[in-house]
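[agent] plan:
  1. take the single chain provided in the ticket
  2. run structure prediction with default settings
  3. attach structure tokens to the ticket
  4. add a short note for the reviewer (M.T.)
[agent] executing step 1
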Amino acid sequence: MDKAQAERMKGENNPRWNGGVSEYPNHADMKRNRLIRLKEADGKCEVCGDEAYCVHHIDGSRDNHAIDNLVVLCKKCHGILHSARINSKTQTSKYIRLYGMTMKQIAEKYGASSYYYYHLHREGKLKDFLQRAEREIESKQNQSA
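[agent] step 2 finished; step 3 output follows
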């Protein structure tokens, strides 16, 4: 995304705009410290060294925006970190509850990226897609039997 496109996606023009309400208390602190951490890490994942733009709260608290509580991660490492937490007894993937498998399992089973299926989910179309895909799989199995 170029700078002009990014500028057009700010505020109310962003499809994820929620009226200016943040999920983080002290959101201004979070934004400021995120930028500091990204600059300190030179935009590189602190786990694998790939390009990174995610900042994760080490202690899991969305209230603690201290710089030493933030780690810079690429999308892949951030996802791995969260899936490790999902496998703990304290948290279950909402996708398992909704679809019977994680987004990664859906992507592996049906052959497109997790990102693609995430967008179907956000649009409310994933459940119908999965039902159609399962019917097609069953039909192909019946034809080959």
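[agent] step 4 note for reviewer: The helical segments are 3-8, 27-40, 75-86, 94-99, 103-110, 114-122, 126-144.
[agent] ticket updated
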